[in-house]
Amino acid sequence: MGAQNLAVACGALALCLALTGATNPGFVVRITQAGLDYAHQQGIAVLEKELAQLKLPDISGDFRIRHVGKVHYEISRLDLRSFHLPYSRISLVPNMGLQVSISNAFAEVDGNWRVKLHFIRDHGSFDLMVENVYIKIILKLGNDASGKPTIDTSDCSTRISKVRVHFSGKFGWLYNLFYSAIESRFREILESKVCESVVTSVRSDLQPYLRTLPVTARIDAMAGIDYSLVAPPTATTQSLDVDLKGEFFSLAHRSAVPFSPLALAFPSDHDRMVYFGASSYFFNTAGFVYHAAGALVFEITDSMIPKDVEFHLNTSTFSAFVPQLEKMYPDMLMKLRLSAPSAPFLNIGPGGLSLKPVVDIQAYAILPNSSLAPLFLLSLTSNVSAVIDVKSGHIVGSLKVGRMKLSLKYSDVGTFQVRMLQSIVNIVASNILLPRLNDRLDQGFPLPLPDRVQLSNILVRFHQNFLLLGADVHYQSAPEMEIKRREGPRAPKMPPSPLPSPWPRRRS
Question: Which residues have a Cβ under 8 Å from the Cβ of 19 and sit 6 or more positions away?
Fold first, then answer.
């Protein structure tokens, strides 16, 4: 009894550990029935071409006719002229994968025949029509060790209901004698060949295409995104869900993120072909990586002040707010160094996407020998909101800054009224810092898309702890891509630069 209780306790502990160790995805892709139907159309077109190229073997054999004797026949040069799949559908099989059902398919075959019965020899050609072909395919979905999706045929069956043959030749009664033997042999061979072609097409066409889904996406010289699958795709009654790691990482040194993704309560929307769920974890790992890399540092000098702004970044301007500057560092240029003391943390809720960054502003005087003299250190806090969109398969955005609050953390030039600097900080933030951040965000971060897929009819919604993006899909065929290539790009696309973007050159 004690051993049994111990076994139960160990089992419960193992289950708890397994549940605790389960990792929530940072990014989720949901393919709806509409999306599967579109993908199915593309796949059936490929399969139809593959089946039309089937190579059928020659058929020969003997059979005995009562009171007549042995008949030898040969069927050769079988040519499958066409194979049509007019009716088909794809359906979700919960906890298994996908099922493709094809009905009322038909094919046309021609070839040569030869027959020998005692002294009677004859040969000719024939036309064969295969009708009411039914094909059922079960596709199993998974993921490999690298996190890429996998697909294979777990079951395939073909049933041919009707075969009609028209022979050309003189001895009609003789053809009817061996028709049944040929019909059964041909039915058996074609049913086998169809499933062989299906298995080959899935492995040689569909599986390699799925592997074009990027497991990692390089963003710039500092960071990339991990889009590897954390579990096999899950089929439900309404959609196919793919859980991805959804995590930014450093290209120089990958380290563990000190926080975990929360579970996403995905809505039951099915108006679009595909939905992307980008969690707050996904975005916050970006802030963590760039902060750890020292990228969230911005230096502003006088040369960056817009020409239409009527002040200069020098001690003469700031002495109106900090009187000691005129005595200690008369008429010297200044430099502002903006940095984040900690990684910015973004929040997503039904009302939108927001963050409250804290920025340290260290002011320096630039001495005649170009060295820097520290002046004061300010702390800036502000409410920032973001507008999100999708452009060319990338999540793009722009920031809007709300009310900013300044406080003095340290001063080397005595005390002063910090609120007097508010207008200058507003100008620096709105005219210099924000445009450069938005330029970088406008380049965007790539969504996990396989080759040749374009998105349209974009939908953007905010939910608790994640951003929901919906879209319809268009697959660009090779001819379409060739036409687009000949037309040429509409506008040159600059490669993304590391964050932060390089500052402009000094004005002359």
Answer: none
User: How far is Cα 143 from Cα 24, in angstroms, rounded to an integer?
Assistant: 16
Kindly report the CA angle at 324 between 319 and 327, in degrees rounded to 5? 90
Write out the DSSP string of 94-121.
TTTEEEEEEEEEEEEEEEEEEEEETTEE
**Strands 274-279 and 27-32, bridge-based pairing:** antiparallel
pLDDT in tens, 84-125: 999 999 999 998 899 999 999 999 999 888 888 777 787 888
Q: Let me know how many helices (H) and strands (E) the chain has, helices first.
A: 10, 23
1-5, 73-77, 78-82, 272-276, range with greatest mean pLDDT: 272-276
Looking at residue 316, its amino acid is S
Report whether 110 contacts 130 (CB < 8 A).
no
Secondary structure element (H or E) that encloses residue 443, with its range: helix 434-443
Owner of token pair 């795709």: 233
Supply angle C-alpha 365, 369, 372, rounded to 5.
Answer: 30
DSSP state of 144: -
Burial class (CB in 10 A: 0-12, 13-18, 19+), 492: exposed
Kindly report, residue by residue over 375-403, the tens digit of the pLDDT.
Answer: 999 999 999 999 999 999 999 999 999 88
Residue 461 belongs to what H/E stretch?
strand 453-463
- CA atoms of 414 and 412, how far apart (whole Å): 6
Entry pTM: 0.84
Residue 400 to residue 375: CA distance in whole angstroms: 29
Which residues, listed in sequence order, are joined to residue 354 by a DSSP beta bridge? 347, 385
CB burial of residue 506 (10 Å; 0-12, 13-18, 19+):
exposed
Name the E strands within 118-244. 120-143, 149-167, 216-218, 223-226, 234-235, 239-244
Closest by Cα among 24, 15, 7 to 264: 24
Q: Cα(26)–Cα(19) distance, rounded to whole angstroms? A: 17
Contacts of 245 (CB under 8 A, 6+ apart): 23, 25, 26, 27, 147, 226, 227, 228, 229, 230
